[in-house]
Amino acid sequence: MTHRSHTHRSIGSAIAGVTIAVAALLAAPLSASAGVKTAFVAVPVCPSAVAAVGFPVDSTALAPEGAVVSITAGTLPSGVTLVQRHLVGEPDTVGPVTFTVTNSAVDVDGTTMSSSTSCSIDVRPGPAVNRIGGSDRYQQALKMSQLFPTATTVYVASGAKYPDALSATAIAAAHGAPLLLTPAAALPDGVTAEIARLGATDVVVVGGEASVSAAALEQLRAPALTVTRIGGADRYEVSRNLISDARFGLPTAEKVYLATGSNFPDALTASPAAFVKGAPVMLVNGAETALSAPESALLTAEGTTAVTVVGGPNSMSTALETSMSPRFTVTRISGADRFQVGVNINRAAFSSPTSFVVASGTAFADALSGGSPAGISRSPLYVTQSTCLTNEVYLEIGRLAPAQILILGGTATLGADVEALTPCGLD
């Protein structure tokens, strides 16, 4: 699909969307009488080493605020210019370029001081876009499972409720397994046939009978196929029991991601990231001020030393984060909204992904089954608005220049403008 260029956008917003903090320009009032210079010039920072035709170039600040920045050698990508301390524009030509960024300052004695860095950008074509959409959430899950040529284990969870599936996503990826969805009462068409196609020997039903009934579980039984239920009194106990299961969980994990069990976007985005870090996603009540005794015991049993708290204080309380600090190295990944949280989670886990997976940030159904294949393919999963591509994700395309983007769900979930990679609008 040909990407449409979007030229009417504010430079200021594009800069604000991706600018990162860098060290402030240092000043040290040393002895002027000794003739020692009193200003230091920070070494410039290179932007992302890749860019995509038709998408905004990475506009990371090249030097600290107040610096005078110039391009002193080489050439910028065609379509890109330097505006103060930022590169701005959309590359229009594929190919590598090299250039030198120079940061200058005038010392107190009038001497011009400078520091330079050689940078390069490989401008790549815009990404190819594909969509996997099923007639409903259950057929969507079957289509995602069909990406697996074989699998010895298959996970099955409720498609009507998200918590058990969210707990299962990173675990399923760790076992090289797809995640199939079902209504509580009975299996949807195609599930048993798909399990047979995969050649599975184990099916793991995640959740209690209120999520997947005994009748649905019985439908899964077949010769040479072992069916195991991992349940619990609530979504949090299910999460813990699945993680700690000796055969089908992740019974040792130095790092664990903690996400709220009361909403889906943070845990959804965190699951592929957790997989690539060798970590499970444990659902907790983010409003609590400390871990419960069973949660604390699980982390001890897992040998956990580092905890990543996913989401802002409205999702995971500050008190809960603080309470864990004496025992663990605790890192919080947050953002202004679910879309920015997703970008920040993926920035921390994926350095140079070649593909993206994009799912709805407002409806969970089509995305639940996408997390396992996303993780296994080492593709970050981003959530977006339903009628256009969220600006944060749009800017990430320009910064990382993936070769492929996979849209999860039909047009009722993510509209045609999302598939066309049309941004929601950079004011």
TrEMBL record:
Pfam families: CW_binding_2. Gene3D superfamilies: 3.40.50.12090. Transmembrane segments: none annotated. Keywords: Signal. The keyword S-adenosyl-L-methionine does not apply. This is Cell wall-binding repeat-containing protein. The lineage of its organism: Bacteria, Bacillati, Actinomycetota, Actinomycetes, Micrococcales. The keyword Zinc does not apply. Residues 1-34 form the signal peptide.
